[in-house]
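Input:
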Amino acid sequence: MSTVSKAIELLSWFSAERAQIGLAEFQRLTGRDKATTYRYLCALEETGLLEQDQTTRAYRMGPAVLRFAHVREVTVPRRAGVRLVLPQLAEATGELAHASILQGNSLVALTDHASTRYSARVVLTEPELPLHATGSGHAVLAFGEPALLKATLRKLKRHTQNTATNQADLNKTLQAVRETGFGIGNQTYEEGVYGIGVPLFDSSNSVAGAVAVASVATRMNDESIAIIKCELISAARQITHSWGGVVPEALDELWSDTLLSLSNNKLTRRESNA
Amino acid sequence: MSTVSKAIELLSWFSAERAQIGLAEFQRLTGRDKATTYRYLCALEETGLLEQDQTTRAYRMGPAVLRFAHVREVTVPRRAGVRLVLPQLAEATGELAHASILQGNSLVALTDHASTRYSARVVLTEPELPLHATGSGHAVLAFGEPALLKATLRKLKRHTQNTATNQADLNKTLQAVRETGFGIGNQTYEEGVYGIGVPLFDSSNSVAGAVAVASVATRMNDESIAIIKCELISAARQITHSWGGVVPEALDELWSDTLLSLSNNKLTRRESNA
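Output:
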């Protein structure tokens, strides 16, 4: 790792909980010597990435990051980060790939990309994805704030006979999402449509939306579901990264285990076929 | 300048208009050799401050800046940036110092600090500062978006006999603000209150609010106004910096000229007194 990278890495130690870090604490955290650490801190301060609290002499995140973030948002908006990923997701699965963002208590479609593999395919027609009735919504609710779930419980409209329209049913669904890492909407919004969704995180490290694959329900089987899950994990990691977010550790491990077990199954299937 | 600073400085070349910069363009912009520039770019990419466009091979602002900006906003919110500056502004002028932020088409008080020098002083009672009737509002309108002025023109309520209640009067007032760099509310909102305001800019480089000094009108004279103007320039530069913004070049030069001319006047006065 270069000197420049090592210096910039110091910024990663700041968080909402660790607002200020002094020279001694930086030494302790990084295990580097005082002179080097001080030299890095001076350079970061000089460029505005850090600033020093006049009272405590500790360092905190500097104002330059706000300017840089503004440039990032203007030049690479959320939609752009998603658009790079959806075509791959659609083509690898042969289905409709779509992403949505959380606005207040609503999940709103951001953009989608349809594969041309099958004539029978899903087309998004509504701008809003009901949180209690879609794979995307389940993913967002399961990993979102309790207040979001609370607001959703007030309006559990029945869309199909599979829609969870009471608190107990929805909680059971969400518990399964937390255990597997995937929101499943098996004809919960519309008859014949099967959606699998995973949550997306932004720089606030909270759920900011979902990426999902929607398919004709009759086409779903263990193999197609396995492919969709693998591709969704990859897409969610990429989009979350481009939004400046980090996938929560527990969920990320869950996904890694899923990838491992799915690839083992694939090997087993291949062997049994051979 | 250290290696680390030189590398980070590369980020400053990006803007809304210059979203992507390739290696050759960086060389041209900075006048540095190819190997060094490439080394810097790799380090910035490694830390997520930059990312490379897979198609064009050019660099753009990376996702890490979003995460860092979130930490900055959570740990040093706008109010905090202002609170560091207002006490100095209040004590140096002996008056009420206050800051406001633009929310939609309204200017809303953020926080204030009162000097205890005089018994007769101004106290802010309303949460909103009418844009057409206050020094802060004039500063914001003069340097803000045309749409903001257009919306303001629809509701020019008369507060005192000095309030500009027609488009011609308000335009004349704003022209003076653009020429001097100061919004003056001489009893335009309330009889007996004299306010001087300057605009604040945030990371989007547009007007985000104002910082102002409000005084009892009878206390205003050339000398107190000169002191207030000097202190306001310093406060506005500091707050704008802490909000990740940059004072537009033309206005910044205007302020520098003002500081120079005010300090010359002071010298002249001292000499004539001697």
